[in-house]
Amino acid sequence: MIIGKVVGSLFSTRKSEKLVGNKFMIVEPVETMRAFNQQIVAIDIIGAGIGEYVLVAQGSAARIGCDMEDAPVDAAIVGIIDEGQDWSK
Q1: Could you tell me if 3 and 22 are in contact, meaning their C-beta atoms sit under 8 angstroms apart?
Q2: How confident is the model over 7-42, as pLDDT tens digits?
Q3: Which residues contact residue 74 at a Cβ distance below 8 angstroms, ignoring those fewer than 6 apart?
Q4: Which class for 48: exposed (0-12), middle (13-18), buried (19 or more C-beta within 10 A)?
Q5: Would you say residue 47 has pLDDT above 70?
Q6: Are 8 and 24 in contact (CB under 8 A)?
Q7: DSSP-derived secondary structure letter, 33
Q8: Which segments of 17-83 does DSSP mark as H helices, in order?
Q9: How many angstroms separate the CA atoms of 3 and 58, rounded?
Q10: d(CA 24, CA 26)
Q11: Contact predicate 50/6, CB 8 Å
């Protein structure tokens, strides 16, 4: 899992049938967890908002975490961080 900040949302009118009805957010991993990706697209099943820090599962954990084992999902927002370290640095 990684910690990231939701920096935007996106809409797609044409997509896999298994993704219809889901919301997609653009997440920017915090500096200490940034590997190769500056930003990732994550399915959002919990209602995160722009500006919130979130927990993102990737790979098969993302599909299992959002109960979509047979959908083309590679990243899923699985939690919203209420408090903790200041991740804005």
Answers
A1: no
A2: 999 988 777 777 777 789 999 998 776 676 689 999
A3: 58, 59, 62
A4: buried
A5: yes
A6: no
A7: G
A8: 60-65
A9: 11
A10: 7
A11: yes
Tokens of 76: 């899923």
DSSP state of 83: S
- All structural domains of the chain, each given as residue ranges with its CATH number in brackets, are 2-12+20-77 (2.40.50.220)
Q: Which two tokens stand for residue 45?
A: 């099943």
State the Cα–Cα distance between residues 81 and 75, nearest whole angstrom. 17
Side chain identity at residue 49, one-letter code = G
Contact by Cβ (8 Å): 2, 18: no
β-partners of residue 77 are 44, 56
C-alpha–C-alpha distance, residues 75 and 89, integer Å:
23
